[in-house]
Every structure is written in C-alpha cells, then in structure tokens.
Amino acid sequence: MWGYDHGTWWGWLLMSVGMLAVWWLVIWGVVTLVRGDSRGSARPGPEDILRTRFAAGEIDEPEFRQRLGAL
Predict the structure, then answer these.
(1) What three-state secondary structure class fits 4?
(2) What is the pLDDT of residue 67?
(3) How far is CA 70 from CA 23, 52, 57, 62, in A?
(4) DSSP label at 51?
(5) How far apart are CA 55 and CA 58, in angstroms?
(6) Does residue 71 contact residue 50 with C-beta atoms inside 8 Å?
(7) pLDDT at position 10, please?
(8) Which of 13, 14, 38, 61 is the residue whose CA sits 20 to 30 A from 71?
(9) Tens digit of pLDDT for each residue in 8-65?
(10) Separation between Cα atoms, residue 16 and residue 6, nearest integer Å
(11) Does the pTM exceed 0.85?
(12) Is 38 helix (H, G, I), strand (E, B) or coil?
C-alpha cells in the first residue's frame, strides 16, 4: 500500500478527517449514554419541593398543610 504511487494527498486527508469524525461521534455517543441526557429529566414539582422542605424541618406541619392546601 505504501508503494502505490497513484494515490493523491487529498485522499489521505479526507480519510483522516473522516476517521476523526467517526471517533468523535463514537466518543460523544458513549459519553451521552453514560452521563444521561439531561433534557429529558423531570424537574421537581412544587409539591415535591414542599415535601422536601417539610422533611428537612424547614417548615412545621401546620405550615406544610396550609401551603399544600394553597397548591
């Protein structure tokens, strides 16, 4: 293959750029699968935040029930 004199330099350049693109896509895909796509993750709703605050002791039970009723 190294002795083939009829090849052109742009062919090697195109092949090199193509391989870099393929490896970039493979690495990007693996990272996306491992890390998880954050666009699909659900944000906690107001009731979940209220329950978390109650569980942490930031608000007491009467305030929790009052705010839960308001929601």
Answers:
(1) coil
(2) 87
(3) 53, 17, 20, 12
(4) H
(5) 8
(6) yes
(7) 79
(8) 38
(9) 777 788 889 999 999 999 999 998 888 875 665 677 888 898 999 999 988 898 998 8
(10) 18
(11) no
(12) helix
Both structure tokens of 70: 């308001």
Helical axes 46-56 vs 61-70, angle rounded to 10°: 180
What's the rounded Cα separation, in Å, for the pair 50 and 69? 11
Q: Torsion-angle region of residue 57: left (phi > 0), alpha (psi -120 to 50) or beta? A: left
Q: Where are the alpha helices (DSSP H) in 1-71?
A: 9-35, 46-56, 61-70
Cα dihedral 65, 66, 70, 71 sign: negative
pLDDT in the model for residue 38? 61
